[in-house]
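Final report, results section. Input specification for complex C-07:
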Amino acid sequence: MATQQTEHPIAIIAGGGSVPLHVANAALSGGRKVLVIGIKGEANPGIDRFAHDWIHFGQMGRLLKLLDDHGAVELVLVGGINARPDFSQLRLDFWTLKNLPEILSIMSKGDDSVLSGTIKMFEARGYTVVGAHEIAADLVSLPGVIAGTKPESNGFDDIKLAISAARNIGKLDAGQAAIVVNGRIVALEAAEGTDEMIARVARLNASGRLKWKGRVGVLAKCAKPQQDLRVDMPTIGPDTVTAVDRAGLAGIAIEARQVMIIERDETRRRAELAGVFIFAVDEREVAI
Amino acid sequence: MATQQTEHPIAIIAGGGSVPLHVANAALSGGRKVLVIGIKGEANPGIDRFAHDWIHFGQMGRLLKLLDDHGAVELVLVGGINARPDFSQLRLDFWTLKNLPEILSIMSKGDDSVLSGTIKMFEARGYTVVGAHEIAADLVSLPGVIAGTKPESNGFDDIKLAISAARNIGKLDAGQAAIVVNGRIVALEAAEGTDEMIARVARLNASGRLKWKGRVGVLAKCAKPQQDLRVDMPTIGPDTVTAVDRAGLAGIAIEARQVMIIERDETRRRAELAGVFIFAVDEREVAI
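Structure output:
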């Protein structure tokens, strides 16, 4: 066990939600040491169950020193960032100020560029950025049924069209999700996000502008081709199931291996309870 | 003038709004006789300024008899249909009942199929269906500025991206419109329609989830490749300008020759007053 003591820990830089805790547990179960570094105001206080420390937004110097002190070279960046940091709350340390031109140049680009720029910044300094699903494999799904039963014929046509639509708007870098009901694309996601898109379909259904009988239609969620899945995955979770249920849709289709399922047990439980299917599509099964 | 007396009139089958009146005036100005056939509950009562008659939904037999009585062989189908007809209000005449299988087969398909099926039904009986813009050419626009000034550099990049996005979702048969702000696709239209999509962007802006300074961003509207422009054109009008103004966008880009401008004078007046540009893009200017 002496090797365990001296092994480099995997550093989990933690935003909000339960996923960083899940990743930390998975790493421990896999026999790895962990160091959880929580972002103040974002990370779950529950990280105190693990070897941990805290940083503020803007304390890149402190972050690098923590990694150095613990000998961590592998990083996982995981968890939600609710808001762009309030600039009055920023505590820029010396390292950050010194490297501000590089950081500002990264921050001024779009979301995807911020993330890929952050990865590059770490990699240029010798760190390896690892995807959360590479530590906790159950965050994603293999092809097949996750909840409910796989829809047949018409239902599967809706899945194929929705996946195709979601991939197409992903190629445009517009969004990751689409809703199809009875062969018709009824919603495409862009800046409003998946939850608001589902709520819109619920409203169109409630107002009678979209009508269907029983549970039909599917929400599809896919990764954008240019998305770096190590730091930015499309996600579904219990709230997605509740929203899909309220909209009267039959289920959710995700791309296998590419979409993160947050709180998988609770997600499945709600889906089974509501009679909503969740199905992971093999990419080879659906052409664009 | 004797030829004028015996000339076949052009039959304008009129749904709601001012466009059927505009088309009737344009036909008269062009030296054509007109017969306006208003759909009860939809057409503007102002059709009584022209040679006219009324039909109810479901009176296809009566419609064909009217066309026959007046010797009309060219038809324009124009104007809004607010609602799928209430079946309790239908007055199916004998012809309609006799041809119900053909009609139901048409009605059971999607919107585009209903329209193309209707055209086929007329054409099979020897009528020619003409587009409203083929009678009133000012319903569409040649390439160039319609209101305001053509945006330069960044603004024109937004136009190109928005037109490209709108065409792409048109190919998916999802919608006709997209909104781009500072190089980012922020909204894609599907079943909610253009007005609600613009209102969504206004809300995202008001809530701070989308931020920009000054007037930037563009709404693009394009025809779907499979759209039959004789009976179904994408449209903009005064309300589109007001919605774009409220959302804080810089302007509207439409495809030249393919998008109908309702109440062009009022549309331009509002755009100039609000400082919103309207620009018609030459299809050769923007690649998909």
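The longest helix of chain B spans residues 153-171. Confidence is low (pLDDT under 50) at residues 1-5 of chain B. This concludes the modelling results for the funded period.
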